[in-house]
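Render this sequence as a predicted structure.
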Amino acid sequence: MWRLARAGARGGRLTVAAVPAAAASGGPGGWYERLAQAAPVHWAEDGLLGLQAAAGLPWWAAIVCGAALLRTGVTLPLAAHQSRLLAKLENLQPEIKQLAERLRYEVSVRGKQVGWSEKVARFHFKKNLKRIITELYIRDNCHPFKATLLVWVQIPMWVCVSLALRNCSVGATDAEVQEQFSAGGTLWFTDLTAPDSTWILPVSLGLVNLLIVEIFASQKMEVSRFQKLATNFFRVVSVVMIPVAATVPSSMALYWLSSSFVGLAHNLLLRSPTFRRLCCIPRTRSESATPYRDIVSALTAKYSFKK
């Protein structure tokens, strides 16, 4: 009911999209509506409205610019920070391997002196190795959990902006904004409140996301079993996002595509040795002096049909 009153007061008319929300507030869809009306989502709505009003851009351009600003101002610094941590972790591996070999020898000698069983010796080895690795992480300030900060910021931000665009598209924010969205598109998606019936935006989104995954997978470094599973998981997500993007308003699909495209550009930028030194990212053994040539070669070799 609150949503109905808000839409009526601000827009002067009751939108059809507001009716299911009130009905769903006590049903299975209630959690989604509560999430769509959360304070961070309204902050995102205000930010979008403020950007569009200040820049005087059509809505499609404001959405693209908003995605670029968020990616560049928020996630790019976090991505550079993540790259610094990962580089430090990679440079620590030879030292960890050396210390592990020395510890294994010391545990073996000690075990023979006091009569430890193989199980007890293994326990002491793992316990002391974990302590040594933790001390190294503290010394170099590169605990792996810190590298997840990008995810904890990027995903909630992406969700909030997506829901804000959804609210603007269905009239939950303001009926006047919905009318602006219905005529604020361009090219083949002139109505930002309707899904892209041509599937150009959804398919482009899937291809860009797949390219990001494949570029990450082409890095010349040892890959663990977990990383292989994660890579395959993101491949599946990239494909699943295509039909999802085809069912949501074009404003959301355009934001997703713009965000992914800027993210792809940032991933390529973070491969540049010059930019990495500018961001104080340490050199590593896996770093290449010709990263872009290596990416093209890796993708060509992987997907070439020539024998």
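Summary. The mean pLDDT is 84. The chain is about 75% helix and 0% strand.
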